[in-house]
Specification:
It is built from four helices and no strands. It has 111 residues and is mainly α. It has a domain of 69 residues.
């Protein structure tokens, strides 16, 4: 038996053992309507955040009040992300509902 045959046999055995084990839940898969709603809100928050990052990128900080420094450059993205999360939580643009409906439809989860 050659080394290649031994390797192929080991791969076959490990593949058979892996198939016998229960499959873990896929990350990001919404198994309940509540999880789908949360995933929809997270998606909408990310979308709003990306839009707002572009909007805020053109603003210059006010030097009179200490703005525009390295601290503002470092913390502004976090502030914009929090704005986006709050907007999505309060209804946002309506994307969260559409995304959660499509997730549930794609996964055939009844809500």
């Amino acid at each position: 038996m050659t080394a290649l045959d031994t390797f192929a046999q080991q791969v076959g055995q490990s593949a058979g053992a892996a198939a016998a084990q229960p499959r873990p839940q896929i990350a990001g898969k919404a198994s309940t309507p509540e999880q789908a709603k949360k995933a929809g809100q997270n998606f909408e928050a990310m979308f709003i955040g990306q839009m707002m990052q572009q909007m805020f990128s053109g603003l210059q900080g006010d030097k009179v009040f200490g703005g525009g420094g390295s601290g503002e450059k470092m913390f502004r993205p976090m502030l914009v992300d929090e704005y986006a999360k709050m907007m999505a939580k309060r209804g946002g643009f309506g994307l969260a509902d559409a995304v959660s409906r499509q997730l549930l439809k794609a996964q055939e989860v009844q809500g």
